[in-house]
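L-carnitine dehydratase/bile acid-inducible protein F: structure, please.
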Amino acid sequence: MQTPHASLSPGPLAGLKVLELGQLIAGPFAAKTLADFGAEVVKIEPPDGGDPLRRWRLLKDGTSVWWQVQSRNKRSVALDLKDPEAQALVRELALEADVLIENFRPGALEGFGLAPEALAEANPRLIVLRVSGYGQTGPYRDKPGFGVVAEAMGGLRHLSGEPGRVPVRVGVSIGDTLAALHGVIGVLMALHEREKSGRGQIIDVALYEAVFNCMESLLPEYSAFGAVRGPAGSALPGIAPTNAYVCRDGQVLVAGNGDSIFRRLMKTIGREDLAADPELADNTGRVARVAELDAAIGAWTATRTVDEVLAALDAAAVPGGRIYTAADIAHDPHYAAREMLLPVTLDDGSTLTVPGIVPKLSRTPGGHRRNAPTLGQDTDEVLAPLRAKRKIEG
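Here you go.
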């Protein structure tokens, strides 16, 4: 187990008690975010195998390296929620908790005898975050829903990929992560309100709604104009020029869509004629001629390396960047300077680099206080006070 850094602050959420009943991505990501900033998170896992994420993707010594990110700073308690005794223990833990997080299908928590309304009756200050595919109400509430389905229903998948081809997915579980972040926002708002009312509340986050909430002008454009936005590859429809372009040894992204930025970009690529063209002075005119602009920029990048293109763009103060791989990230000096490449020491003494803490607070920053737990590592420690209390009362 990694020894916490001596100068690490307790974090702005120190003292906050969180009970996590979720698994895989959305619920646990929300709890991980709270834990990074000092919340005491107790994760309830089934004794038989634990959270399935422990075995997802690439494994090191039998455990996913993803686990070291998703469950850092948490404690693990192994309980079978189908067992009435385990349910009773969870109810006791909920009596002392500030927040309970779950991402089961609607009705599952109630089936375990852990209905939020009943928990709140016993602990009126309890805040319950419920993350599900379609939300706790509505005609789709009982349908199984994963993040990929939410990305499709939320409108994102239709926009992904090249025109006329089957849509592609974003390479990560973005629907789950967006829902988790919306859940964290809800928890923080509920905590703020509790300071005034003294009461908790239930937060209902649907995966598809979290995606839909990030879809910008998609719906109002359809409402006002009947326009159905479609896929556009690496471009951003209605904003120009901004796209990915091929270089001699790779690709770069170039965002020249500000009026003055556009003029600097055109001068950089040797197209002063386009820089001075009054039809291209604003975005409306540039969108009408986007194919011409993309061709001009592409012709310039095609004869240069990525480094040469980026050096010229930097000199002209034009936003641009390489398309990073994991290897690029791991060796990038800016990532390192911003402490986004966080080395942790695992139980076997090896070092693993994991993502750093986001966001960055100046006075009470978050931090890596504890490695991800082994299954049930903290069961005895967490449950001992409850069992002692029962023995006294008995």
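Notes: The mean pLDDT is 95.
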